[in-house]
Amino acid sequence: MKKSKYQVDPGLWIPMLLFAGISVITILSAQKLLDETMQTLALKQLLWYMIGFGIVYIILKMGISMIIKHAWKLYIIGNLLLIGLFFFGKEINEAKCWYAIPGIGTFQPSEFMKIILIILLSKMIQEFHSKYQNPTVGEEFLFLLKVIITVLIPSILTFLEPDTGVVLIYLLITIVMLFVSGIRYRWFILLFLVLFLSVGSVLLIYFWNQDLFIKIFGTSFFLRVDRLLDWSNGSGFQLQYGMTAIGSGGLFGHGVLHTPIYFPEPQTDFIFAVYASNFGFIGSICLISLIAFFDIRLIMTALKTHSSIYQYMIAGIVGMLIYQQFQNIGMTYGMMPITGITLPFISYGGSSLLSYMIMVGIFFRISNENIRYTN
Fold first, then answer.
1. 215 lies in which domain range?
2. Is residue 22 part of a domain?
3. How many structural domains compose the chain?
């Protein structure tokens, strides 16, 4: 029997199917905590997954080279969409992060900017190493300056929406990709020193004189810092009730559609609390193990490829996914600040899911090329 030329590592596509099932079932359970206008979220998530797998197939069939070729054009389009939010964005919870699309829902450009930055930075790093085999300190500095400017533009636009959580993801993606690119480590020491002094100065003003802090940075930024710093005392309606729901699940949980207590954003930010209350400690361990297995398979895919630009892409994707996984699950248990970051492949969201599925298409294609190369 002739084998299909579109083979993919089962360690990648099987977890994706499981994620899809877990996501739809958990969102269906979360709907019980929401009002009547949000009782079709599970169906919508299923439709987004179907569209997403269609995108995966297109990328798997057509390849990644065209996306890489037009990376700068995609970057410009992404920034224009971020700028447009200030004029045409829909305000939700005092933030303009979305475009309203009648009959469909909302569209969040910053979710797609994450993958655009991963592709663009991969291209920039690969071109830099192709041009300079043994770059000098000055050549590396100019390259890093170009990278900083490239990342800074969407970061400022996203911060002003405001969406601090996504800005942190931009920063993390950049650091991880530069780290695996092989540039001198002294730059990372300098970067962390600058970050330490910057964050330290901001916190010093915050604790020393909050009125002065508001005059310098504004009320919006003050509230965001206040929220980040308040997580450690375990206070807050959302956190307390979410942890109560998790604790009540016990060893095996209450079962599907039986989340015992209400807490805000059960379909997005606190989706793991819904899952844990439904499936208990055993179910939570199974999901975390599945996530860890999937991340490891992604890393193995990167190690098998002979293309440096593919390795940079997967490094950015893995860094982003692991951060979001730790952040989302950690904030559900009160171990991390509540930043509004969703759980990849599980939380509800059309824009976020489709952006992740573009990434899935990329590493499916890389896996396919690895298998074809080996054969």
1. 10-374
2. yes
3. 1
R_g over Cα of the chain: 21
Per-residue pLDDT of the chain (375 residues; tens, 9 = 90+): 445 677 889 999 999 999 999 999 999 999 988 888 788 999 999 999 999 999 999 999 998 999 999 999 999 999 999 999 999 988 877 788 889 888 777 889 999 999 999 999 999 999 999 998 888 999 999 999 999 999 999 999 998 888 888 998 999 999 999 999 888 888 888 888 988 888 888 888 888 888 887 877 777 777 777 766 665 555 567 778 788 888 888 899 999 888 888 888 899 989 999 999 999 999 999 999 999 999 999 999 988 888 899 999 999 999 999 999 999 999 888 788 877 789 999 999 889 999 999 999 999 999 998 887 665
Q: Domain for residue 1, yes or no? A: no
State how far the Cα of 43 lies from the Cα of 52, in Å rounded to an integer. 14
Do the domain assignments include residue 5? no
Both tokens assigned to 122: 């991969």
342 is a domain residue: yes
The whole model's pTM is what? 0.89
CB–CB of 287/22 below 8 Å?
yes
> Which tokens is 42 given?
């599970």
